[in-house]
Amino acid sequence: MIKFIAVFGLLVSCSETQDIRPVFALFHSFELEGSEPIWMARAKVTVDALTHNPSNRTASKAMISIESNQLTPEERRKVDNLALSGKRYQLKAVDTSTGHHVIAYTYHADPLQQTLKLSLDPSGFLEGVTFLPAGREQVIVDIMQLAPQPETATYIQRMDHERREREKTQGQDNRNFFAKYWMYIVPLVIFLLISGAGNPEGQ
Amino acid sequence: MFELKILLFSIGCLTCSGLFEDQVGKWDWLRKHVGPVKHVNFGTIAGGNIFVGTASNVLASINSRSGKLVWRKILQEDERGVIHSLSRRGNPILVTGSDPPILRSFHISGALHWETKLPSTPPKDSEQEHFIDAESMTVVSVYTSAKDVVVSQFSYASQETKTSEPISAPFARLSKCTLVDNSIYVCLVDQTLKVLALSDLARGFISSDLKTDASALELKGLPEGRFVAVRSKVSTWLYGVSAKGAELLRQFDDLTEITNFKHNDVVYQVLAKRSESSCWTLSVLDSKFSEVSELRGEICIPNVFSGIRTLDVMGLSKKDAAVSYRAVVTTDDAGVLMFQKEGRVVWSREEALSEVTNVQFVDLPLSDIEAHIEEEFTEKPTGVLSMLIKRIYSQLQQLATFFEPKNPLAKNFGLVRDNFGFHKVVFMATKVGKLFLVDNLSGDILWSRYLPNIRPFSNGQYITVTQRSTAHIPHPPVLSIFGRSPSGGSRVLALNPITGQILDDQHLDITITQYSLLQPNEEFLKGVVLYDETTRRTIVYPAKANTNYKHYLLTVGKRGVADGFLLEDGKIDRLWSIHLAAGSEVEGVAVKGQENVHSQGRVLGDRSVLYKYINPNLAAIISRSAQQNSVFVYLIDVVTGSIIYQTVHRKAKGPIHMVHSENWFVYSYINEKMRRQEISAIDLYEGFEQPNDTFSSFSSVQPQVEHNTFILPDYIVQLKDTVTEKGITSKLILAANAQGSILEIPKAMLDPRRPVNPTMLHREEGLIPYVPEILVPPQSILNYNQSVARVRGIETAPSGLESTCLVLAYGLDLYYTRVAPSQNFDILKDNFEHYFILVVLAALVTATYVTRALSARKALKAAWQ
Amino acid sequence: MTRLPHSILMFGVLLAAAVTSADEGASGDAEYTIEGKLAISPHQDNFTDILEATQILVDGGQHIGFLKDDYSFEIRNVVPGSYLVQVSHPLINFEPVRVDISSKGAKRARRVNNVQPHLNNHLPYPLKIKVLGLHNYFQQRETWSATDFIFHPMVWTMGLPVLLIMVLPKMMSAEDMAQTQREVQQMQNAARMPAVPELSEMMTSFLGQRPPQRGGASNTNNRNRNERIRHD
Hints:
The complex is a heterotrimer.
Chain A: E1 2-11, E2 23-29, E3 32-33, E4 36-37, E5 40-49, E6 60-69, H1 73-85, E7 89-95, E8 101-106, E9 115-120, E10 126-132, E11 139-143, E12 145-146, H2 152-168, H3 177-202
Parallel strand pairs in A: 9-11
Antiparallel strand pairs in A: 1-6, 2-5, 2-7, 3-4, 5-6, 7-8, 9-10
Chain B: H1 2-12, E1 29-31, E2 37-41, E3 49-54, E4 58-63, E5 69-74, E6 83-86, E7 93-96, E8 102-106, E9 112-117, E10 127-133, E11 138-144, E12 148-155, E13 160-163, E14 167-168, E15 176-180, E16 184-189, E17 192-197, E18 206-209, E19 218-221, E20 227-231, E21 235-242, E22 245-253, E23 257-263, E24 266-274, E25 279-285, E26 297-300, E27 308-317, E28 323-331, E29 335-340, E30 345-350, E31 356-363, H2 368-378, H3 384-403, E32 424-430, E33 434-439, E34 445-450, E35 463-468, E36 478-484, E37 490-495, E38 502-508, E39 514-520, E40 526-532, E41 537-541, E42 550-556, E43 561-568, E44 571-579, E45 585-591, E46 601-603, E47 609-612, E48 618-625, E49 630-637, E50 643-650, E51 652-661, E52 664-671, E53 676-687, E54 704-712, E55 716-721, E56 732-737, E57 742-746, H4 760-765, E58 793-798, E59 805-810, E60 814-819, H5 834-863
Antiparallel strand pairs in B: 1-60, 2-3, 3-4, 4-5, 6-7, 7-8, 8-9, 10-11, 11-12, 12-13, 12-14, 15-16, 16-17, 17-18, 19-20, 20-21, 21-22, 23-24, 24-25, 25-26, 27-28, 28-29, 29-30, 31-32, 32-33, 33-34, 35-36, 36-37, 37-38, 39-40, 40-41, 42-43, 43-44, 45-48, 46-47, 47-53, 48-49, 49-50, 51-52, 52-53, ...
Chain C: E1 12-14, E2 23-24, E3 30-39, H1 50-53, E4 55-58, E5 63-65, E6 72-78, E7 81-88, E8 97-101, E9 107-111, H2 146-150, H3 153-171, H4 174-191, H5 199-207, H6 210-231
Antiparallel strand pairs in C: 1-3, 2-3, 3-6, 4-5, 4-7, 7-8, 8-9
């Protein structure tokens, strides 16, 4: 009943080299006992390697292996009925190293097809699980990455560069008087010429 | 480097809205406070300044004739600034802090005279008390531990210390002890007085039995001479203490307070008895304990203050060398008053306003005439003719009231909305339990009310909820304040904020953790659903309110677990659960307020639109791990529990301040490695396709996140954004710094998309090139030279105009002003020269007519030639 | 409210880094004192409230110091580390200083640079830091003065001809006026460019024969009229 699926998961980001191989157990619930959900094992996710790729912050390939349990037809029917009866499908992810769990839910019509995103902190500690629309992968791991620092290096370089350039070219406004004020002198001259032409002509 | 500063200055001034010097004081005001007074020093000369030490760790000099603040010294807010003792006369000398205690002496002008550390080291696990005597220039420090007492005398004139051996006193910690005359230490243990003379420490404590078996006895050391008073409910016994023990001098009955003062080397005892509800009669006994009839006085507290808490009396000589006195009284609601012997209030100060915890801007109601006009929009349409008649009638009424003389004594005169919506009233709740309504234009207190049985919750704040606004005449506006009840549970007080009238006062059996507003009922009253985290219960207030609701609740526990619940019609259901980073503790949660976002996206340089991700269910959580020295930031959708974005800052620490609004989140923290304040901005965008009109957390996409960090060369104490009615005006982030200035930072400066190397497209969009440091020029300091000490919060409210936002900063001081982030684009500038234009127009018109006449005359003359 | 003076006063902050004897704090770390002085000479003290209203803030209020009569200050109980010392006054802008205290008690002061915090821009010992003057909180109102009008080039280009046109006729007598008028009319006639053929003439000549006569007739009419005027 256990099918072994080895899947290449897309690692959204990675910040530090990890030597740990976190293992998460996924449980789901589609029926309630009173008000408490009944948890059934759904899958076991092992994150085999989180590699550090400093140049490309966005993607690193890593191995995620999933062992998932097959659902019986009756369980399958119960899942399909959830959406019809307006109840929610709940998922619990347990971090097997510490034992703590996180819970998520969805009202989607086909919850087993949705992609799961496991959010981890930089040390591989499980923080939360999210349902995403169905995609290529079944499970995505998102590790918290470092926030951007104020970029002082490029700024300092640019300032030094500009300062050196400015020291080289010391431009002054030392064009001569005509160059600065030709806009005003030329119309004046034209006016004088016209009036001068008019006057002698008239006489 | 300087040219760079000029360049940055001009960039920063792109939207700078600096004041002009002649606008100072036109629409802003500052109220300075000192805090609830604990110690009083009557100064050197009668009629000069008095000095007070307050519970807010402030030493202040107050003019004894007017009550105005002359100068103040603000010490650290934590226990290093706590004032233990203040000298009673002369220059203010005070002992502050405890690790180690520092002794400072100030001149009466405010300059520091000298400062020194108390040389005695406290023994382990001891409580400290310090007493100063200015005449003998000694400081006595008493350290009480579980078993013994160590007394250390430090003479600051000679810089000599004398520390005693531990003196066995197992009772010292459990009972009330006090030091009188800086030389006798007295403790009240059961029915005995134990007296220790500092001049003869070897003798130890001498016991004297009190000849009474009354219970619930209290000990009070009197400020002058070697007297202590032992008080029970009914009687007061006055004892003289000395190296030989305690000796009963007199017994008085039915006294409310006893104190004394020294004048011309004679110690006068002052006995206070309550006469009427808020009055005390003072009788004064001389050194032989016979009453001096000329010094009999009566002090009555004005209605705005509550009962008297402490009484300090200072003697003075009047012109004819007769003895008189002045009394400084502190009240239960943190007021300070000075009385003359005759009972006249010389001045009073309302110091509860130094501890404001909640601020709410309340709109004023429309005037009756305007309300009548507005009624036509709410009533059913009754035909065009009747509406016309009604309108004409209202306008005739308006004309009539315009010519009528106004009656300034009418209740709530002037409390109507003005044209631009600038005139509002501010409701403030303070830590001591006093509520105020302040007029925002003048800063005057319109009404105040002291509530002895409601206190802030454990987070230091009340919950104030506007259940009904002033827009629904004839129903009165309702503002409810929820607080902790000192006897357990919570208390709610519903009142009309404009008049101060109490509409409801109830005790609720839960400890309120969170609240949410419900839909209004047919009387436009919104109920409130209250949630108690400890018992996981909800109740609805008022009980008969609309009970069909569906709310999503986020709780973040101390161990870093965040849970989401669904509250539906009284049922609580846990939906999701997440864990914050291992080892971290939550520092703060920020959700968005109710505001309008005007534009759906940003127009980029190539005229494509980048749509904003506006998720009303988004909560920002910041947690901190002290061991890993990191700050973790999460953006979480409260409905589904999905972590939209998470990131970490290494080597960062608090204090952390946050602003969450529209589609962005801005937060500040201190970078420990680089030792600077950094401010980080996160913007969320959906992408280039237009999203659906209604947002749903279940079907939304993962947003595109833009994140960048900047340096701010200052220490941020508080952050808040401005808000306007329609959201068209650009936003300013107001940052209060440690020096008391409020910086205006335009949101465009805190844009994570600011490019490091700007291209043509970026310039087309209008993005400011990225510079790591945000320099705020002095013109962008909102409160110019009116520094606000210890800003605890900034409250912003929209005004009637779209361009203007009203701002109130509160802390130790109160400062109100208005700010126009995009300059006042919708009104004329305030120095618009109406008269000049009129004059010029008139001149031009007359010139036109004159020249027309002249030219007509000339043409006529020419025609006649 | 105090009015800002019109001159910018020069202030300097003198910071003396002195090693005082280390005191043991409760936590066991040695504690040191930061000492400094404002370089204000008594006759420069145009502000009466410097001693009252100035506060020395270390690290945003972690430690607080006050000024003595001689404008010096001390901040005690400071454990080794790096601190930002700001002198805060509502009207005067003092330059902030970064003070580093090493674990052995050696103190040094350097200029504050947040972009490059490890730059060692030492402030010499005893230090004199450059002044920053007064806080310039207010924008200046745009004022206009008469000189703006008189010296503006546009005024000369446009205003002067208008004046000439208005003033000259007054200065001339009536005959001169008439003569000038005639001259102006002549100039206008001359200025009318005869070389450019009238469009209507062109079109009619192109289309038919009759118009040239009419045009000629009108031309001769005009010419006769002009001659008549000239003989007046």
